[in-house]
């Protein structure tokens, strides 16, 4: 049987990445930040000067991404871009090109290749619906827009990026609408997903909730 996967999907800044990596640490499993692949493709578009409206050219960049995940580092052609891909302009472009079906297809196998024993925690938008439909535990992590904007604001400030909270709120709502409204792999809870609202929960409480759900399934 294939290695187990816990999928964590949800809207922008719902805390998916943080929760996924803590759950993976606790279980001693691998982690997949699938959004990073869309962000890396977006960064490649910006750097190569390819027209972002040219679906085939963007898909070709996605197909040929030369990326290595090495702990906290994310190497694109050997350069650590872990910080660079977190910028808002990269995130916004990532959301635009993520609507292209050929881009999603180009990244599909790359994501499935992360599945390995003893297990994988995968976060994104379509982990439970498209990439790992057979995952034994699927989480849909939500939080109200205010809580999410405040988290993202803190995160960006800590990284030294200066941003306005009102701009963040607007970007976030635009991105959520695009991610939820697109025809290809829209942001939606899998039919068999458990929804967790983290608005009033601490990181520890959210992690514990996921771990408890996982031990119930054993
Ligand atoms: O999660 P993150 O904000 O890093 O993702 C950036 C963008 O990539 C999202 O806004 C979404 O449009 C896209 N994405 C996706 N499917 C995933 C992960 C991310 O479409 N599994």
UniProtKB/TrEMBL annotation:
Q: What is its EC number?
A: 2.7.4.25
Q: Name one GO molecular function term.
A: kinase activity
Return the InterPro entries for the record. Answer: Cytidylate_kin (IPR003136), Cytidylate_kinase_dom (IPR011994), P-loop_NTPase (IPR027417)
Q: Where in the cell is it found?
A: Cytoplasm
Q: Does the keyword Nucleotide-binding apply?
A: yes
Which Pfam families does this UniProt record tie to the protein?
A: Cytidylate_kin
Catalytic activities = dCMP + ATP = dCDP + ADP; CMP + ATP = CDP + ADP
Q: Which CDD domains match?
A: CMPK
- Matches recorded under SUPFAM superfamilies: P-loop containing nucleoside triphosphate hydrolases (SSF52540)
Where does this protein chiefly localize?
A: cytoplasm
- The enzyme class is transferase
Q: Does the keyword Secreted apply?
A: no
**Keywords for the protein's UniProt record, in alphabetical order:** ATP-binding, Cytoplasm, Kinase, Nucleotide-binding, Transferase
What residues does ATP bind to?
10-18
Q: Where is the Cytidylate kinase domain?
A: 6-213
Q: Which PANTHER family does the entry link to? A: CYTIDYLATE KINASE, CYTIDYLATE KINASE/PANTOATE-BETA-ALANINE LIGASE
Q: Which family does it belong to?
A: Belongs to the cytidylate kinase family. Type 1 subfamily.
Matching NCBIfam families: cmk
Q: What's the protein name? A: Cytidylate kinase
Organism for this UniProt entry: Yanghanlia caeni
Q: What is the lineage of its organism?
A: Bacteria, Pseudomonadati, Pseudomonadota, Betaproteobacteria, Burkholderiales
């Amino acid at each position: 049987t294939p290695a187990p996967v816990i999928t964590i999907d949800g809207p922008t800044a719902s805390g998916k990445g943080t929760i996924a990596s803590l759950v993976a640490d606790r279980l001693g499993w691998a982690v997949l930040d699938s959004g990073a692949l869309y962000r890396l493709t977006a960064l490649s578009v910006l750097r190569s000067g390819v027209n972002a409206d040219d679906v085939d050219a963007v898909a070709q960049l996605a197909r040929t991404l030369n990326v290595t995940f090495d702990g906290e580092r994310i190497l694109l052609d050997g350069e650590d871009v872990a910080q660079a891909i977190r910028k808002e302009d990269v995130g916004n472009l990532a959301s635009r090109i993520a609507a292209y079906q050929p881009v999603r297809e180009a990244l599909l196998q790359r994501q499935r290749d992360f599945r390995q024993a003893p297990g994988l925690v995968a976060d994104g938008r379509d982990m439970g619906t498209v990439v790992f439909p057979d995952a034994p535990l699927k989480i849909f992590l939500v939080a109200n827009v205010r809580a999410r904007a405040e988290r993202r604001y803190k995160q960006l400030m800590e990284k030294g990026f200066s941003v306005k909270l009102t701009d963040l709120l607007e970007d976030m709502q635009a991105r959520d609408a695009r991610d939820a409204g697109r025809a290809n792999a829209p942001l939606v809870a899998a039919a068999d997903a458990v929804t967790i609202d983290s608005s009033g929960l601490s990181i520890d409480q959210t992690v514990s909730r996921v771990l408890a759900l996982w031990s119930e399934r054993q």
